[in-house]
Amino acid sequence: MKRRLQLFLPLAIFLGLCLMFYVALFRDNPGELPSALLDQPLPTFELATVKNPDRTVTRESLLGEVALINVWATWCPACRVEHPYLVDLANKGIPIYGVNYKDDQPEARKWLKTLHDPYRFSINDKSGSLGIDLGVYGAPETYLIDHQGVIRYKHVGIVDANVWKNDLEPRFRHLKEKALKASANNHEGEAR
Length: 192
Description:
single chain, alpha/beta, 5-stranded mixed β-sheet, two-stranded antiparallel ribbon, 46% helix
């Protein structure tokens, strides 16, 4: 009996792999990877910024508005491709915070000076600890957070006009509307 099972084991492994590849290939959004942190608050952290190593920011520094958190690095070719579009989004008033992931800080400062800085600030995650807490697979990755700092969406890969229009912008607008309604309800309750 044991011998028979050993004969079918390679076939079972092969069929399992085929099923995994099929699911990965035909899912609705290949740039969307599941995140254990979806609908969870951003992890707590206390790290310096890239531009000003003396400035420390925390999770609370990102609260109060719907925003994007973009994981980037100078060693990442895809980050260079996406960067001009992030600059364009920032110029249109979209709040973006950076997480500079496992990078050389002088190179990161040079990048932001040369290619323009789309970030309200960029967090120096040289050790990768924040990235690990976020569940980062690599760079670039972009998280959408609500005004309370809860992760509502994760996109893996380049953010371009198509990704913004079809994936991020509708969610961004929905979260902004929700935040405005919550704020109006709070003001209404305070007036009573």
